[in-house]
Amino acid sequence: MIRSARFAFAATALLLCAFKAPEEKTIRYQVTPGFWFDGIPAFEVEMRFRGDSDGETVLELPSEWAGSRELWRQIAGLEIHGADSLGGYYDRPIIHHRPGAKIRVVYHVQSAWQEDPGFDYEKARPLVRSDWFFWHGNGVFASPKGRDSAPARFRWGKLPKRWSVASDLDHWKGKRTTVANLIDSVAIGGAGLTMVERDIDGAPFRLATLGRWTFTPDALADTIVPIIRAEDDYWGDRSTPYFVALAPTGTPSSGLSVRGTGRTDGFSIAATTGFELKQAKRLLAHEYMHGWMPNALGGLPEDKEAADYWFSEGFTDYLASKVLLRSGLWSAEDYVADKNETLLRYGTSSARNAPASDIVARFWEDPALQQVSYDRGHLLATILDAEIAVGSAGTESLDTVLRAQREAAKGSSARATDLFRETLRARTAIPLDPLVAQAQDGAPLLLSDGLFGACTRIIREQRKEFDRGYDAEATRLANGVIAGVVKDGPAFAAGMRDGMRLIAREAGKIGDSRTEIAYRVADEGGERVLRYLPEGKKEFEVQRLELDGREKDLGCNAGVKSTR
């Protein structure tokens, strides 16, 4: 379907208006896919609202989210109707109008990539193709300044033939939500969209997928539904309408990229096509837990939110693993394997000793800083859960503290980390600040024996750093042509050379230098598989959790589940 659109906006630089009290008139949004703008696939967004009562309204286009900036650059053909004059800047136009005038805004959202982004995918930027789309509301919806809490309505426009669409915004069909909830949304659609619907204790669950995967949509739904039930049970909640979207970001010659994003009443997975169902359970449990963590417990700060990711992401990692074990969706072996991945990654991280200020400043620029924030929080929650249980003789746990915090948040404006400190102190007398300060300053977080019950032990051991022996990033950017092979490294010794083509990784575990890695490569002599231990020269002392053989004993395993 091809439609035309025209550009009808001219801006001059003026000072932005002062803050005014928000207007409570309903803002109406309509999204219509199937457009082309300047020869590029796009979808149309139409807004209708009343201008501010003083005759001046600032329209804020998408700007920054999740480390991506200038999101408004994906917006083209901006039209503003009902204005007497316009000022400001393209991303923040000032609309001059009669007091309370009817304003109509139309614009088109284009893809940030003309090819599959693969590892370069940024979740803030919409993916738009001629026959499908996938987006998060943060990169799509403009809003009048100061009206995040204003009522809003959403609907789909006319769809192209054979298209179907789905979003968590469908839960609000015919009802009012808020502008903030509209922005905190995910949507997917196209000619090849597959839908799976289930009933979870009377609440509808919908899964929407695009692309071909190694599993069926029904198999993915069968994995998600028990997780939803288990986490609802953990919080003592009834299930509510829920939506999950899965979109492909490309088929690279090697490697895997998976991005999960939690929404208020749904979550999304954007992945390269090597994503497998066996990798999904941990990710799905984490994303669904974001239905509570952290917004139901107080939320994140408006500025420098990465400072609190140890709580919003790290605690979420811990709770997800705990619920999977307790519910029987994970075995004791699964749980221990997950803890050991965290311990190994944390113990060998180049950012292990990074202060919190570095995490805040460069979180979205450095993958090691991103991950260490998660892992610090995961280990911090593990330690705290044990300390709370021991200090209260088993009458309290991290669970009871977080549930109490959730109740306290209903009548508090405090952010989640501050409210957690208050609730923890009130219920347990455990001071949180020294432990958090230790972690945030880069001091090591160490687990102690007995932390997981009598059937486990903590072992300390030396590990060499994980080193592929070639430059993985440069190889990816060269479309699989191997680059940066280190001559005295393990890959060179195994026969890898610059200029070979990397076809696939056939064995190995990224981050684990003790597990043999295998790459299928090709050169003028044909294809072959290179195998080697990806060991670098640096050594680290790391902790490892080990089951002592009694994990099948019901009493021992019950102890692990009940206390941790």
TrEMBL record:
Any matching Pfam family: Peptidase_M61
Domain of life according to the entry: Bacteria
Residues of the Peptidase M61 catalytic domain: 282-353
SUPFAM superfamilies the record matches: Metalloproteases ('zincins'), catalytic domain
InterPro entries in alphabetical order: Peptidase_M4/M1_CTD_sf (IPR027268), Peptidase_M61_catalytic (IPR007963)
Protein's recorded name: Peptidase M61 catalytic domain-containing protein
Species of the source: Allosphingosinicella deserti
